[in-house]
Amino acid sequence: MDITEAQRLLKACASDLRCGCDGGNIEGGLWYFGLEPGGRNHFDLKPEKNFNDDGSREAERVVWIEDNPYGRYFNQFFRAFFNLSEMTGKESAIDSCNTHSLLTDNGPAFKGNIYPISRKGHEDWENLDIFFDGNLLGKAPKITGWTLDEYRENMVQARKKMLLEKLEEKTLKQNGKQTIVVCTATAQRKRFADIFGINEVNFEELAFSNSTGGSAYLSPIHGNSGKIIGWLYVIPFFRGPNGPLTYEEQRKYATRLREVLIKKGANVLLNC
Asked: What's the structural domain count of the chain?
C-alpha cells in the first residue's frame, strides 16, 4: 500500500463514526467524546465494529459500562444529567443500558472520540503499528508519510466537517433541538474547540472550587446560519494530576451543566 492510499484510508476513517468511536445513537441529544481511544499501540485501517453495527456486540454494552473506568464515569454523568437515581456497579450499568437505552442505536446518547487511532499515549506515533484487515503494513510515519502533528491536523479537518454537518442536520431535522457535546480533558479544550468550530476565548468557565478536577468550560456551537446547533462542555478527565475524580464530583459536573442550560433556556434533551 502506498502513502497516498494510506492517507486516503485514514481520512475516510476519520469521516466514519465506526473508527475510534464506541457507538450509541448519533441522533441522540447527548454526545460524550474523549480525545482518542486508548490502550493499544496498533491500528487497523479497516473500520472495526462498534456496539451498533449488527447487534453482535450488543451484549458488551453493559460489560463496558460496568468494567471500563471510562464507561463507569460516562454512566455517572449520563445518570446525573438526565436526573436518574444514583446507582453504581452492575445495577447501574444494567439500568442505564436496558431501561434507559444507553449506547443503543435508538437511545439518547453517543460515545465517540476526536481522533480515530487508538494509542497508549497522546504522543505515541513513531512506534505505532499500522494494519489493514489484520495484516501488518509497518510503522505509522513510514506508512502514512505524516508526522504526528500532520496526522492530527488531517484527522481534525475530516472529523470536523463530518461532525458539524451532522449537528446542523440534526438541528434542522429535530425542530431546532440542540446537541450537548461533552468532551473529557480540560487540558485539551483547545483541540475540542477547534474541531467544533469554537474560538477557545469564548468559553465560559464554570468553577468547581471543591472538585479534584477544577473548572469546566462551556460554549455554544453555531451553525452556518449563526444559530446555536449545540453546546460544547469540556470537563476534566476522570484521572487527573490531583488524583481520580469521585463519582460525586463527576455527577456535579453533569448537574451543573443541566442547571446552566435550563437557566439559559437552551433547547436540549433533558429527559430520557
From this structure: 1
